[in-house]
Specification:
The chain is α+β, with helices and mostly antiparallel strands and 112 residues long. Helix content is 18%, strand content 37%.
């Protein structure tokens, strides 16, 4: 049985190809980007959606695939942004961005 868990996942997931063209948005990402076009952003370039210096950073990640993680605060809400390469076999296929809403306090557990 195939599960489309990504669609209803409670975090924004955006998938783009190696040129930055948006291939997929889950429901949460479409809602977050509703004012920018929502699902109509599929097929558009993510680079055009990012102002500087974020645009240059994303372009560099596309040219030199690596993981980029940071937190933001917007309208009083904190999020962790996780951008990471995805692959088809051994070939770099693009970037996945996951934007996770964060609570005010995030516990940190050190496990052994």
């Amino acid at each position: 049985m195939e599960m489309d868990w990504v669609k209803g996942f409670n975090a924004s997931i955006t998938v783009c190809d190696t040129d930055g063209v948006i291939l997929q948005l889950n429901d949460q990402a479409a809602a977050v980007f509703q004012n920018d076009g929502g699902l109509d952003l599929i097929g558009k370039n993510a680079l055009d959606c990012h102002p500087e210096p974020a645009r240059s950073k994303l372009l560099d990640i596309l040219k030199n695939p690596r993981t980029n993680v940071y937190t933001i605060e917007k309208n009083g809400k904190k999020k962790m942004i996780y951008q990471s390469p995805w692959f088809e076999g051994d070939k770099f296929a693009g970037i996945v961005e996951i934007s996770l809403p964060l609570p005010e306090e995030v516990p940190n557990f050190i496990r052994k």
